[in-house]
Amino acid sequence: MAIEVRIPTILRTYTGGEKAVEGVGDTLTALLDDLDSRHSGLRGRLITEEGNLHRFVNVYVNDEDVRFLGGLETKLADGDSVTVLPAVAGGSL
Amino acid sequence: MLELPQTMVDQVVAHARRDHPDECCGVIAGKDGAATRLFEMQNAERSPTGFVFDSAEWLQVYRAIDDADEDLLVVYHSHTMTEAYPSRTDVRWSVNTPGTSWVLVSTRSDDVEIRSYRIEDGVVAEEELRVTP
User: Fold this and answer.
1) β-bridge pairing B50-52 and A89-91
2) Which CATH class is domain B2-132?
3) Which residues of A touch B122 (CB under 8 A)?
4) Which chain A residues contact residue B93 at CB under 8 A?
């Protein structure tokens, strides 16, 4: 079961410069574990030590933000596409 | 040095005034360092002290820029009660946008202040904002 994962520029150091990589997994967690076996360190940029999705990134499954789906437990199926983007935020405090 | 056409500077200032007292935010795409397009973004926080790009809108904008082989030239936002200088929050988040100018607008007074910065490794450096006709 292959899922295409689009990687933003700032994380391409983990993918040898590739814009997109493929992985397998029936949930987002499983997919990230699989990707980390070939792209070591990538998982750690997306998931905190407490095991939550890092607030510095947005992860989308089929263009839907996973925070509005099932988070890291979002179910994946063959042919789904996952996109990772850096979140952009700031403020005056 | 960041060069922006007057029309874009005017649009950023107008956006900041319109969203005041909440912070406004947006991006400017560029090609080879030249500004090409401005995207006004929704501040998902709708807050007078912070901004977050709406995630669905950001995906569309990022794709539009990427598909056109453009770069993220500028991230802009406003401070509505403080000066146009990056806050600690801005510095922390700027690691996500390396090589991008952070343009800040202050709407705390009627004399709108607009300035541009490069933030690398936590160090803020102001850069010249040159406005072209």
Assistant:
1) antiparallel
2) alpha beta
3) none
4) 56, 87-90
Query: ipTM of the assembly?
Result: 0.93
- The pLDDT tens digits of the residues spanning B35-78 come to 999 999 999 999 999 999 999 999 999 999 999 999 999 999 99
Helices (H), B1-133: 6-19, 55-67, 88-93
Domain residue ranges in chain B: 2-132
Q: What is the DSSP letter of A25?
A: -
Specify the CATH number of the domain A3-86. Answer: 3.10.20.30
Contacts for B19 with CB less than 8 Å, ≥ 6 apart: B43, B78
Residues 15-54 of A with CB under 8 A from B: none
Which amino acid, residue A18?
Answer: E
